[in-house]
Amino acid sequence: MNESLVIRLGTTQEEPVDWLVWSAREGEIIASGTLASAHGLHELRERAGGRPVVTLVPGSAVIFRRVRLPGKYNRQSAAALPYLLEEQIASDVESLHLVVLGHEGHEVDLMAVDSQQMRRWLGWLEAAGLGCVQMLPDVLALPQAVDGWSALQLGRHWLIRQGPHQGLVADEALLGLLLAAQAEPVTLHSHTPPPPLAGADWQAADPELPMLLLAREALRGNINLLQGPFRPQTEYGRHWLQWRKVLGVAAALLLVTLGQRGLALYQLEGQDKALKGEIRQVYTRIFPGESRIVNVRSQMEQHLRLLGAAPQSGVLLLLTELAPVFAEVPGLKPEVLRFDATRGELRLQVTAPGFTEIERFRELAGKRFEVQQGEVRSHEGKVEGALVLKDKSS
User: Fold this and answer.
1) Which residues form a coiled coil (predicted)?
2) Is residue 168 within 8 Å of residue 323, measured between CB atoms?
3) Which of 79, 159, 246, 371 stands the most exposed, by the fewest C-beta atoms within 10 Å?
4) What's the distance, Cα to Cα, between the start and end of the chain in Å?
């Protein structure tokens, strides 16, 4: 099939949905448009036909990180990835869906998204009768720049691709802060008219329809969030058909042989032993020289600290984490930015139309950061305030 339906969803079901049908053979757009919200996705069922469906999701909902493993990446050492990511973010890693984007030696590039959000996206598509074969962040559907970053403005936000496995989403004000925080000016290849921002060498790239630009790059690559528990149902369906009868017979025999209480206790004890055994096997494979194992989690964390797997720091990381918060409180503007590398603190002087915006910003930022509020006062019709933010994981 040389034609594909590419859909760009929002974080919520009420946000507009852009779509495009692209013919790779003809090199042209068959059809395109915008739905008022994801509630209208069923209108694309006829457009999909037998075409594969590729879905773009907001890069602002995805976490991108590079972590360092104690040894080289393999199936056994991959079990340590959640421990490493836990050191870098404030979110509960157990609620995140992790995908490995690439690895080289001890370095592993990851992307992570809330599992519940994944289920929502797939639920909208399933309710509309659309079977998705590929899902990826929109920032990784931007073309890679040979030098510097690539950029594209969509509405009030800028999509920035910083490398093969790294990207961010920011409004114009936050983008200015990010650029100002760079040690040297960044070369930005913009596929839409550049904004009047200093701190970057803006280069005009070939202008194209945004959805066409994103669709072509997405179809060329192999980045896909649909892995593990979210792998397309077609593959699981084949395995399920093979094993359904066997599992049915086994379940019936177990129910006849064992009482319900005895069976439940037996299963819980077996699962507990198997899980502990698997954890110990992974640990001994990663650290073969250690024979005394008392507390796997504690000993794993101790090894990672000794090996230097400390959280990433720096103003760019903090500001990237703050991007969604600034977007949620558009009336609040940062006036002065100072970063204390020794303390790992970001100090902000902000202005807002009222006290409500500052309180809203403090509440949202408090989910990921430790927030200290300094003096807040009203001056010439605006409210000025001081805030100190520190990553909770540091």
Assistant:
1) none
2) yes
3) 246
4) 49
